[in-house]
Design a protein that fits this description.
The complex is a heterodimer of chains A (about 525) and B (about 180). By secondary structure, chain A is mainly β. Chain A is built from eight helices and 34 strands. In chain A, strand 11 and strand 12 form a beta hairpin. The longest helix of chain A is centred in the N-terminal third of the chain and has 25 residues. Chain A is globular. Chain B is of the alpha+beta class and about 180 residues long. In chain B, strands 1, 2, 3, 4, 5, 6, 7 and 8 form an eight-stranded antiparallel sheet that branches. The two termini of chain B are about 30 Å apart. The chains are: A mainly beta (about 525), B alpha+beta (about 180). At the A-B interface, strand 30 of A face helix 3 and strand 4 of B.
Chain lengths: ~525, ~180
Amino acid sequence: MVACQGRVFANRIRVLSLRATNERLVGAKDLGWETMKSRTLFVAYSAIVLVTCCGGAHAQQATPQQQVIGAPPEASNMKLVGSNDLQARSAYQPTIHHQGDRWIAYIGHHGGTDAVPDPVNPMTGKAEPNGTSIVDVTDPAHPKYLHHIPGQEGKYESGGAQMVRVCDGKSLPKGDAAAVYMLRAVGSQGHEIWNVADPANPVLVTRIGEGLKDTHKNFWECDTGIAYLVSGAPDWRTRRMAQVYDLSDPAHPVKIRDFGLVGQEPGSTGAVPTEMHGMISTGPQGNRIYFGYGTDKGGIMQIVDRDKLLNGPKEPTPDNLRFPEISRMPMSAFNGAHTTFPMKDMPIAEFAKDKDGKTRDIVMIVDEAILNECGEPRQMVWFADVTTETRPMMISSFTVPEAGGQFCERGGRFGSHSSNESMAPVYYKKMAFIAFFNAGVRALDIRDPYHPKEVGYFIPSITAATDKRCVPADGQDRCKVAIQTNNVETDERGYIYIVDRANTGLHILELTGAARRAAGLP
Amino acid sequence: MRGLLIASLLAVGTLSGVAAALVAHSGGRMPRVGNWHEIAWPFPRDGWPAGRAFRCDAAACGEAVELYVRPKIGFCNCDSGVADDDEVDRVADLDLISPRFAPVEAGKVVHVAEMAGRARSYDLKMTDGSTHAAVGFALSRRCDLLVAVAQGKGDAAGVQRVAAEFLGSDSMGRWMTVALNGG
């Protein structure tokens, strides 16, 4: 017990040291009162430890880079507003919806863990497979858990209901104006649409697809109802491709077509291209869909003509699959494309006096790290200039400096996973937020996408609910516990919502200091 | 301080021993295993680290057969393992040899070195226009894959038989275990 106490003290020192180290990366001018307070605390805490702790032997046992329960979050220019434990369920996509005078967070979940396959829902007293959490975040300081909709049985990636999108019935061409529709992906069970007008009492509207190999990161155009559902149609050669549906009347889904890369379609032979991860559409006005393929390897960003996709020939022949494609940009074999976030017509200050090319169309591409403790090439963030659509080019990148937090040794995954996808004016084309697993969420100033700059970060504290992450060592599992910030989303008010893959829950954040100023917030 | 020094020396010694064992199993040339001898990995770098390549000459295997094997860490569904033949098509590294391949039959369940998975036979169209027989193996251990592909000018059944025997040898089994453990 004494030894454990020594470890906690040593880690406490390390956590505070890290905070100071990371703040130095931001620059002295950005340091405010909280930093001063932290440093004072650090000095005081160090003095107490030196006086009371039991000597070097215990300090040697510590693994100083690891997080410990009770240590404060690590932060720069971001602060915690509120949190919810999400019933200790592993979290994927959060979608924040302004619903009447309320703000509701819909959060998808992966399946349960080996230790707890079906966590107990304290609201029902029943063990329920992870599905969708519905949380009232109207008061972000006091989020209120409203309801859990169970998902597919199964652990980790094999269960749950990872993806969530929400559209108001009044915005959909044929929707019930009184309804609010939530579209969710339910593992291999297919997709479901729920009416969440009363978010505490969701009602199932319909199911789409069945017997799929997998489902994943969908996109739903709320003004047209067109939905791009990442699915694994049984006859396709890939686990993930797109099934395009007209969900303008959510109660009566109409299939439009299947889509993917040539070589994935039924009956094809030879090499099978990288599976689809997700997409973002710019709708009928932008007439483009940006598809991302791959996870941590062999990524492809594909630019597709939306009108040709929806109205062109639909049989999944090689020619018909090529028809809507404008171009594709293969990435390194070392990186995949989890998120492909378009930002068109970005004014570039450096190019302001150029006679042409003052504005650029940019796509931010986020890879997904999948292996613990840096077991793969670094997964990070890339910016592509797609102004000349047939010749997209990578122009810049961002990664968290590993040495800033010894992230390869903290445990769990280190690297990027996803970005916010809200296009609300508060942050669009100004700030991007990147979920970076054990490095928490990172706030990037992207006003010059040729030179993205980190202006803030937040790494939540771990809790008793935070699950371990293991790697093989000497024939056995060696496990560590660390935050695994998996996804992030923002709302129109400027709050930032991050969720944890290792069961630590939801944290609601806001910008402070220089990051707040960079976003133009008061 | 003295204790610390001794501990450090012991640690270095232990690591050296482990390193030597790993060299013997993976880094250096493997002793001839039956009729197979190791050759250089013949493919350019891709998303996965290079694996190991072996050749069995015609005198021993009827026709010359080459086999390429490597782990793909974290590339498998942790629960369902290798789900179907499509997964063998996707992961078994056939495309390293040629992107033009077609299955000749449905795959079958196989067990190699305490791992379960599937094996499937293919016709490979080579760049010189010739056709080779190939067999792809995809084996899973928890969330990791061990993939192998063997190819030769002989018949598919013969390629599959000699490749399966080689993969099932004790030496390869030990190496596969080390490789999947990150060694």
